């Protein structure tokens, strides 16, 4: 890099998300350089589906689609084909490029050593195993405040999520995942400042119990 460091820093910080992600993949030195930049965003929406995965950063929706030999990354109609790579590695590189990490290290796979500083997360997935249960442990507990989930699985349970420090230390949870909750599942939400959930019809006794939780 022939440009003065301060100028290069300014250029890199002003890059659009997809450009910063691609810059980080050029070389180990640029990877290290990008990891030292400030966070590009504080809110992320994660999309985890069968044939389409990615995340939304502000107005930028970045999608990853696996190919037979590599994957394609798309954003606002612009495609970048990366050969001999795995889409999950690419998605992790994207997260690393746009968020501060407690341990800035390239992730070959999902690694508990990677922690992303994110205030709000919005999961859109088919199964909790595809989104929240997979990715929530990678977000900094205590720093993460708001969790939103949209899930089409009718057999959603919150027991595993409720055991994570991220869930325990969150302030708000909004979910329309699965079937309406039973009153006994309110135990997973009682610690929150605010929650928005679907519930079955309540009896008077259950309503009184809910008021006690609130």
TrEMBL record:
Give residue ranges for domain F-box. Answer: 1-44
Among Pfam families, the record links this protein to: F-box, FTH
Q: Name one GO biological process term.
A: innate immune response
Question: Which PANTHER family does the annotation name?
Answer: DUF38 DOMAIN-CONTAINING PROTEIN-RELATED (PTHR23015:SF4), UNCHARACTERIZED C.ELEGANS PROTEIN (PTHR23015)
Q: What is this protein called?
A: F-box domain-containing protein
Q: Which organism is it from?
A: Caenorhabditis brenneri (Nematode worm)
